[in-house]
Amino acid sequence: MDIKDKVALITGTRRIGGVVAVELARRGAHVALGYNRSREEAEEAAAQVRSLGRKALVIRADVSSAADVKSFAQQVISELGRVDVLVNMASIYRSKPLSETTEQDWDSNLNVNLKSAFLCAQAVVPSMKANGGGRIINFADWIAASGRPRYKGFVPYYVSKAGVVGLTESLALELAADQILVNAIAPGPILAPPDLTAEEDQEVRKATPLGRWGGEMEIAKAVVSLIETDFITGECIRVDGGRHVR
User: Fold this and answer.
1) Which one is catalytic: 35, 93, 157, 158?
2) Which residue of 49, 53, 77, 187 has the fewest CB atoms within a 10 Å radius of its CB?
3) Do residues 205 and 244 touch, judged by C-beta distance below 8 A?
4) pTM for this one?
């Protein structure tokens, strides 16, 4: 798919999402940015998109709510005319021992990390079908993509991201006849958390065969690649610096 003049809807525009939005705009896409709490960062990304001569929308939505997602998609289609690309980046990542994990913890992980991707896909597929095809890119995790957990304290998170892989494969089969390609990206060490200690940073680097953090542009490159491909669907691409082979 040629990205130029297509409309991309991105959820979860904090940090990496904004970089992805700007990179798509550089290639000629118009962009709708969905956010829940990070309005300032979404507006900053939108301003960069507009500076490149592309249209940008910033819309607040709880993507775990079917009503919010439906309204979000309808507004994008109304103002930008269509949706060609959906990038489901909305996610939460929290660690908690199993003994302290609550029903709310379970529900929030499953709702934001998995349910939202399903709801958003369902909302934009009619527009994609009407325009002859599209691309859906979900976000899993390098550990879930590797098929086994490696760290304790992430039960709901791991289950939700493993579910994203399954959702990606199911949607790819369901939508292939409509030329809607569905893939997932499974990030590894991309950006160091702001509260990471120097010792923890070194541990991550040592555990990564390439010996470094990837940076936001590695995710943007992967997104662009999965939009431009016309024959890859149902895949989960690990962008992890080789973590899964160690």
Assistant:
1) 157
2) 53
3) no
4) 0.96
Element of type H or E holding 39: helix 39-51
- The count of domains in the chain is 1
Exposure string over 138-161, b if 16+ CB within 10 A, otherwise e? bbbbbbbbbeeeeeeebbbbbbbb
Told to judge if 151 belongs to the known catalytic residues of this protein, a careful annotator would answer no
- Residue pair 158/149 in contact (Cβ under 8 Å)? The answer is yes
Judge whether 117 and 86 are in contact, CB under 8 Å.
Answer: no
Whichever domain contains 226, its CATH number is 3.40.50.720
- Domain membership of residue 124 (yes or no) is yes
Assigned domain for 1 exists: no
pLDDT means per 10 residues in the chain (246 residues)?
98 91 98 92 96 97 96 97 97 94 97 98 98 98 92 95 98 98 97 89 95 96 98 98 92
- Residue 72 to residues 36, 49, 125, Cα–Cα distance (Å): 12, 19, 14
Residues in the chain: 246
Output the CA–CA distances (angstroms, integers) from residue 71 to 81, 110, 123, in the order listed. 14, 21, 9
2 assigned to some structural domain:
no
Domain with 51 in it:
7-245
Residue 234 has, within 13 A of its CA and on its CB side, a CA count of: 10
